[in-house]
Each structure stands twice: as structure tokens, then as C-alpha cells.
Amino acid sequence: MLFRRLVWCALLVALAVGSLQWAVQRWQAVPIILAAEEFEVQKSAAPAAHEHTAEEAAHAHHHDVDWTPADGLERSFWTWVANLLNAFALALLVFAAMGAWAWKRGLSAGAWRLAAAVAATGWLSLHLWPSLGLPAEVPGMEAADLRLRQLWWLLAAGSALSACALVAFGRKPWRWAAAAAWLALPFVIGAPQLIGDPLGTFSGEAHQRLQVLGRDFVLATHVSASLFWLSMGVVAAPVFKRWLAPVLDRTSSNATLPTGSLA
Fold this sequence. Notes:
Helix content is 79%, strand content 0%. By secondary structure, it is an all-alpha fold.
């Protein structure tokens, strides 16, 4: 019963939070991405300096037939679906963290404060801390090796999550120093960076325009992520209080019944 209710609650939160994120992205991030893609298309459409071999032509044809959503309504719909799936997965994590706290410490702090703390942890760990080393990039920008960036992102997110968990669940006074060490670890190692200008393949007006779009996109992603986690906390709190907390209370009470009966 608890698992089924958890899934339905996460779907409810995902519908609200994911749709809001989609609307914010349509208003802020999507125009920037579309503007940058115009320069990226111009770059990829530049004539090649050599003739294509038969193998190269077959390889290019293979990529030409790969499916991508068409611009307009179809692309907007699949972006909305992707936002829903992302919000659903993160809502499950949020409810799992809230449930773990309620199981270990109870709900004396209240569902609203607990949801705010968990949402703030998600914002710090899954957005702010990784973005300090790897800011968002617009289409057309060159970057360091993808695998290295993915590994560093996981390190930054995991370190921030470990620091928050240590502060939340730890009892020892040294947990603050340990949390600070966890937060510093990814930056001591250093995020992988591209040597040279990430927009070096562009020049003139295109280069200047993409620089502006890049700064605007970083700001847009900060706003979108902040609103996402704010809405996650606002929506998750009443849902958790209404449908999940009572089940956790009953489950916890049933778990203590054998001990009480033996006494």
C-alpha cells in the first residue's frame, strides 16, 4: 500500500512541478536555445573541404535517418514529457528522503519545514554545486570530454548530498567540518575544462551573439532550477502530509506492536 501510494503521490507532484518547469523553460530557456541553434546549424551546414567517401556518405545517411522531434508542437510535447519524467524521479527521491527523516526523527518539525529542507538539499546538490564547476552551455559551444564532465558532475552532486546527509543525520560535533570537506572535495579535484575558447569556431557577430546567449542561458537555468525546487517543496509538503505521513505513522505503530505486547 505504501509503495503504491508513493508512486501516485510522486505522479501528482510531477504533473504540477513538471508542467510548471516546462512553462518556465518555454518562457526563458527555449528562446535562447533556438537562437543558439541557428548559429549551430549554420556551422554544421558549412561546406566540407574534402570529398566524402562512400563510407562517410553511408555514415552521414545513418545519422540523417535518426529520429528527432520536429520543431514546434511535437518538440514542445516531448519536452513536457521529459520534464514530467524528471520531476517524477526527483519527487520519488524527495518523498524517500522525507520518509527516512520521519522514520528516524519523527514529524515534529512539520511537513512544510521538512519539505523545504529536502528541496533545498536537492537544489544545492543537483543544481548549484555541479553548476559552479560546469555551468550550462548553449548549443554550438565546445566543451571538455563528456565522460569527464559526467564523472565530475556525479562527484559534485554526491559530495553535496553526503554533506547534507551528514549534517542532517549526524550527531557528532565534527560533522560540520566533515561536511565542509565533502563540499570542497570536487573543487579540490577541479572540474574538467576546455583548453581554449569554447566558441572558437565562431567569429565576428556570431561569436559575440553566442557569448551573450551563453550568459543569458546560465541565468535562465538558475532561475528554472530554483523555481523547480521551490515548487517541489511547496507541492510535496501538503501531498506528503495528506497521503504519506498517515501511512508512515501506521506502519511505524505496527512495527512497534510486537515489542509492546511482549512487555
